[in-house]
Design brief:
Helix content: 25-40%
CATH architecture: Roll
Shape: globular
CATH topology: Nuclear Transport Factor 2, Chain: A
Number of domains: 1
Radius of gyration: 14 Å
Order of helices and strands: HHEEHEEEEEH
Structural class: alpha+beta
Largest sheet: 7 strands, mixed
Number of helices: 4
Oligomer: single chain
CATH class: Alpha Beta
Distance between the termini: 23 Å
Strand content: 35-45%
């Protein structure tokens, strides 16, 4: 099932990069959560259901473009750990690059939770792995 989980996550990220919110959430469970509680700033918290699309739309209004470039997909049982680089361009042409790691939790072919981690090490530890 882990290989299938990786493909589900990969397809969701590809849809997200195209701005296809419905496609990005196609394999999300009805009780899907996005956990940004480890972040700083006004968006820190846990989002559920329609709140996720609202968050993405609000964030997107402040940026001209936003792309996620996964570095790898690490299988860990029901988790897929994805270190990635986010490249955004602001409305005034300012470019911002951020490296973070996300852990996707899947059950029965559905994404139930996506969790933000500031570092790869924290994400791997939470998924039961260590480097």
């Amino acid at each position: 099932m882990s290989r299938e989980n990786v493909e589900i996550v990969r397809a969701g990220i590809e849809a997200f990069n195209k701005g296809d919110w419905d496609g990005a959430l196609k394999d999300a469970s009805p009780d899907f959560e996005m956990d940004l509680s480890r972040g700083v700033g006004p968006d820190s918290g846990v989002y559920r259901g329609d709140q996720v699309q609202e968050l993405w739309s609000d964030f997107g209004e402040h940026w001209e473009s936003w792309q996620i470039e996964p570095e790898e997909f690490i299988e860990a049982g029901e988790h897929v750990v994805v270190p990635w680089t986010s490249r955004t361009t602001g409305r005034d042409g300012i470019e911002v690059e951020a490296r973070v790691t996300w852990t996707y939790t899947l059950r029965e072919g559905k994404v139930v939770r996506v969790t933000y981690f500031p570092t790869r090490e924290q994400a791997l530890e939470a998924a039961g792995l260590s480097e």
